[in-house]
Design goal:
Elements (H helix, E strand, L loop, with lengths): L4 H12 L5 H7 L11 E7 L9 E3 L3 H6 L9 E2 L4 E3 L4 H8 L3 E8 L7 H10 L11 H12 L5 E5 L15 E3 L2 H8 L2 H7 L6 H24 L12 H14 L4 E8 L8 H25 L6 E7 L19 E6 L7 E2 L18 E2 H12 L4 H5 L10
Parallel strand pairs: 1-8, 1-9, 5-11, 5-12, 6-7, 6-8
Antiparallel strand pairs: 2-4, 3-4, 5-10, 9-10
Helix pairs in contact: 1-9, 2-9, 7-9, 8-9, 10-11
């Protein structure tokens, strides 16, 4: 059977929703739930370079207000005598007060890159700034777990395409935006008919194999997503829907330890405050519903929600009431199982800048090593090659 270009593109489109190697897809059919008490990581990516200085505000720093005379946040919610949080993140303030949120400031890496694409690649691959990797830090975690474990640890991304972060050398996560839509697409007669025909071309053969695996596993994911209906009300935003999907899967007996979400764009060169407030409001309400759902089901102590962005913004505002690409930023950690709470380190130093940019003090790879070692119980040195210690907040 000769495959036409249009058929090839259709197969590629469905296959791209998974982007998984056959051995990993095969493991998706195994009905083995996570062991009781096993930790789960949820990553929330702030795409576009969130402005950290208008997220955690240095309320007593004159330089901040001088350099941002039009966009400085003056009604922040106090975290302590020197720091506040953006008022659109009011629930994060509640989590902070209850000891269920930690903040690490000044996170970055040496020789920072201000390109969205390159800096995101660095964060997702956990590479050096002059190093180019084709695998991601969570993808290599999957490779390591598949090697060590009888049943590989699985990861899911709620998106149409798989991020570099979840691509390993031998194992890749499974990406989908909506379990029901994925299942319905996989059941179309056209795709099933195509799968019945073998093709000898190596590239096309791989696509057929991936297509078949997707068809076989789409129903499995869909069934798990609706197995445990929630009484929790989630916002109607896209992020709210994504968190609801993650919640339904966590509460089922699916064997998934890592979930990956994203929201954006935070590329606020113009009229930053309005855009950031809208994004923060969506995040605030979605996280509020998700945490309430996890707490009501006795799962919150075993959930770690981590946020990151590919870079922060410059200290001074620009002429368009926005901010331009910068460097270091903060990361949030939300869990009922934190060992250290609140602000984990000092606020950014606004007096000592590198040509108007913040100077990082915390390497993001140390954060990843901490999560791998202390939360996911993996060998961080094998996954990252990181041997410079870990934090103790989890």
């Amino acid at each position: 059977m000769l495959i036409k270009r249009r058929e090839f593109l259709k197969i590629s489109s469905l296959a791209a929703t998974s982007l998984m190697m056959p051995s990993f897809l095969k493991s998706m059919t195994l009905d083995n739930a996570l062991e009781p008490g096993q930790k789960i990581l949820v990553v929330l990516q702030f795409t576009g370079g969130n402005d950290g200085l208008n997220t955690i505000i240095p309320t007593k720093n004159d330089i901040y207000f001088r350099e941002r005379n039009n966009i400085a946040v003056k009604d922040s919610l106090a975290l302590n005598d020197e720091a506040g949080i953006n008022p659109a993140l009011s629930y994060f303030k509640e989590l902070f007060d209850s000891g269920e949120l930690s903040v690490l400031n000044n996170v970055g890496y040496p020789n920072p890159d201000k390109s969205h694409f390159r800096s995101m690649d660095i964060w997702q691959s956990a590479s050096k700034s002059d190093e180019y990797l084709e695998t991601g830090w969570l993808g290599r975690f999957l490779d390591e777990e598949c090697y060590r474990c009888e049943h590989p640890t699985q990861a899911l991304e709620v998106d149409d395409m798989l991020s570099l972060a979840l691509k390993g050398q031998n194992n890749k996560a499974f990406a989908f935006k909506d379990p029901k839509r994925l299942y319905q697409t996989s059941q179309e007669k056209y795709f099933k008919s195509l799968y019945d025909h073998h093709h000898d071309d190596e590239t096309v053969s791989y696509l057929y194999q991936t297509l078949g695996s997707t068809i076989n596993n789409a129903g499995y994911i869909f069934d798990k997503s609706k197995a445990k209906q929630t009484d929790q009300t989630y916002p109607n935003s896209q992020l709210g829907k994504d968190f609801k999907t993650v919640s339904s899967l966590i509460k089922s007996d699916i064997n998934t330890q890592v979930y990956y979400l994203s929201i954006g764009s935070f590329d606020t060169h113009v009229n930053q405050n309005d855009r950031q407030q809208k994004l923060f409001s969506d995040i605030n309400e979605a996280v509020k519903s998700f945490v309430a759902d996890m707490k009501s089901n006795g799962l919150f102590d075993n959930i770690l929600l981590m946020t990151f962005s590919e870079f922060g913004r410059r200290v001074a505002q620009n002429a368009s009431n926005g901010t331009d690409h910068g460097t270091a930023n903060q990361m949030f950690f939300i869990s009922g199982g934190l060992k250290k709470k609140g602000l984990l380190n000092s606020l950014p130093d606004l007096q000592n800048l590198n040509e108007g940019d913040l100077i990082y003090t915390e390497d993001f790879r140390k954060v990843y090593a901490t999560i791998l070692k202390n939360w996911l119980k993996a060998d961080s040195s094998k996954v990252l090659g990181w041997k410079n210690g870990v934090y103790d907040f989890i």
